[in-house]
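Working notes for the structural subgroup meeting. M.R. asked for a predicted model of this chain before we commit to crystallization trials. I am recording the input and output together here so anyone reviewing the notebook later can reproduce the run.

Input as submitted:
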Amino acid sequence: SDFIRQLDEFLTSKGKKLIGWDEILEGGLSSNAAVMSWRGFEGGIEASRQGHEVVMTPGSHCYFDHYQGKTKEEPLAIGGYTPLSKVYEFSPISPNMSATQATFVLGGQANLWTEYIDSFDKLMYMAYPRAIALSQTLWNPAKKPSFETFEQLLIENHYPILDELKINFSRSNLLPQQHWSSHKQGLKVNFSSKKENDLFHLTISQSSDSGKKFTKEIMLQNKQDLIIDRELDSPELLVNVHSEHYGFEQQINIMPHKALGETVHFLTAPNKQYDSGTLTLVNGQKGGRPWKGHEWVGFDTSTVALHITLQKKRRIKELDISFLNEPGSWIYSPKKIQLLNRDGRKKLDKTVSNENGQERIKIEVNRKVKNIYLYISNWEEIPEGNPGAGHVPWTFIDEIFLH
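Returned structure, recorded in token form:
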């Protein structure tokens, strides 16, 4: 803060104005300094309340170095997940601002950092068509067309122009979408395409615990469901999906287990930017490396509490839970996991320490259970000598397997 004040005085003496990321709010600013709000909207809201000009550029909507598709075909990126639709819903004017505060907002800005970008073609891929979506949403937010209308215009008008200009742009939004939901038998996966009469050719390969392998092929119409049974005798399902209209191929790996599609309650709320829903923890899919935001649930608290409810009591041999350990991003595997079960006379209370930063923790259960409570503890703050020292560590959780 002392440095920022000195720099501000110097720039002011030269007829210039200081602008900086929202960290410069810490410690107070002079009246003519402007703020770039990147850690969410809060910094911009506070800056405008104090009468500072603001550029809104939150990581949740405006970081184009994040992934924009959910498939393995996406090029390597730093992490996070900012699809086209997320960019399009952005508005630099927060609903939590008064009319007076809104007058201090200069506009919005996208950021495209290049640590993971090694060519101009990849730069264009990460920028477009998200740059078009941001431009559209900022020109006239009061009369912005629906995302469906925008996307149709994008595909019919903008994509041909980008092709003509030989711009290497992303077509991730054209990929068939998978919509996951719970089903009484396990999971329901709905496949949908931008083309109403599209057909999906599915090749499903599975192996049983006894070692037998077999493959079957099925065809689904647009918006038809595939049911994945949690009782399936297979350690893994490999589903290849081919869109007849677009020609895109996708591959899904699903590992059935006894909690597949069951109910998970967040007793501790995740960070909004990394809240991909409770189903993320029981959809039979492990988070990938490099990590993508939509495959994990992220908590910015030192403790996390979860409650898993099964439809009926089931004999569980062990619980197997996956964490992320990425110290460079201030994400640390927890230090302690406690499992509680209060069903019936035989109570279960097990605690596992994890001082070595393991990413997969297995806890023996060996009994019938219906309700499981998990209490996950990390550092209160990151110790000195580690990335992010002094801050509360992030805890990222993915699949919770029950075997």
